[in-house]
Tr-type G domain-containing protein
Amino acid sequence: LNLGVCVQTETVLRQAIAERIKPILFMNKMDRALLELQLQQEDLFQTFQRIVENVNVIIATYGDDNGPMGELQVDPTKGTVGFGAGLHGWAFTLKEFAEMYSSKFKIEVDKLMKRLWGDNFFSPTEKKWSKSGGEGYKRGFCQFVLDPIFKVFRAIMDCKKDEYMALLEKLNIKLQGDDREKLEEGGKPLMKVVMKQWLPAGDVLLTMIAIH
């Protein structure tokens, strides 16, 4: 994530396409973007979008959408792009968040995934979606995907126990055994176990590989 698309990425993509392996994209080290670089939500979205576009330029250069593998471009709204922190064991695609909000919005998961990316803005007061945004509107990806993650990170890293305990309850995260002891400490050790339980990387990567 911090390096964007490097030369090695291009080499691996070219090789994969030549060997008829359909590419998926995983944007790693998201924890660094939040903790070290302290990127704002909109900046983080723009970074992600730029990486997706750059990867698709490479895929278009070496791939053939009319070939036997069909469309090769990666697309967050189709679940072929993942985000997370591999080292900390947490990850997600837009599908996980669309499933969380589907009943609230009464929108099918695949349709909601499309609203959680690109220029789709939502106003909590108007309860409306818009393509152009404007006052009171916030990008869907920032509001419904990044905001909950930012809140969890902030509460835990600032050791605000009341705040993070309320968030854990809301997200139905129940820590067991040794992990429970970390509830008293807050900080990075707690953040790792909470994120891993909330958004387990193994499940997400397996789904991405199996489906695509």
